[in-house]
Amino acid sequence: MIIQVYEVQTQNEAEQLISMGVDHIGSVILGADNWKNPALKDTIRTVAELGARSSLIPLFSDLNVIKRALEYYQPDMIHFCEILPDRTRQPDELERILHQQQRIKEAYPKTDVMRTLPIPQMPHSNGSSVLGYARLFEPISDYFLTDTLMVSNDLPLLSQSSEPQPVSGFVGITGVTCDWGLAKQLVAATRIPVILAGGITPDNVAEGILRVHPAGVDSCTGTNARDHQGRPIRFQKDMNKVKRLVAAARQAATT
């Protein structure tokens, strides 16, 4: 059972998480204009030295900058999490995303590619289309990650017109669980290891594992520290929550 935690931006947090048994340490580049961060590079180097694996999300789509970032940071994985375009309404944009991922896969064969497949937070009339996207991305992906897409039930599932996401144009950090029934269908339908994400906390991780049977679980918002109003603090982990999440996941994986 892979345990993956985002968003880790410092060496100190990475060291603590790895000592607790976290396998994948996920980090984020916030924009193409400030993609080079020596402290983040040191964090990724520390992850490698401690025997865990690093995953890096670019929150931008400039292919040249993504390549420069890969060469600078040298992570174990590059993680793409754009909202995928509607197949019938935006076929050219979907083709662009597929082609870009293929170019990265070919140019950096030693770097694994993780692809987020957006899954709604509720049973959705067009939910089965996620399996179609999985078939498209399967040949150029090493991992799939299910994450929660905020949608209205009367809108296309994978559409720029969906409900606003916490990071515009990208999927993640909602703190809301996705449709686990659809996630389970994805696990059964693909040969790619699937990591279950979206609102994963110490309190629900065991249920998620037992219901979905993923290859791994991912937590971000659900293991963040909270401010005085109870809101998650981005880029700051609650180490007690992480410890509880790891223990619950390990126990569920042996059940």
In short:
With 255 residues, the protein is α/β, with parallel strands linked by helices. The protein has a single domain (2-253), classed as Aldolase class I (TIM Barrel, Alpha-Beta Barrel).
Describe this structure in words.
Helix content is 36%, strand content 20%. With 255 residues, it is of the alpha/beta class. It has a single domain (2-253), classed as TIM Barrel, CATH 3.20.20.70. The chain has an eight-stranded parallel barrel, surrounded by seven helices. Helix 1 (11-19) links the parallel strand 1 (2-5) and strand 2 (24-29). The protein is globular and about 45 Å long. The N and C termini lie close together (12 Å).
Report the structural category.
Answer: alpha/beta
Oligomer designation: single chain
Give average pLDDT, whole number.
89
CATH architecture: Alpha-Beta Barrel
Rg value: 17 Å
CATH topology: TIM Barrel
Q: Considering the protein shown, what is the CATH homologous superfamily?
A: Aldolase class I
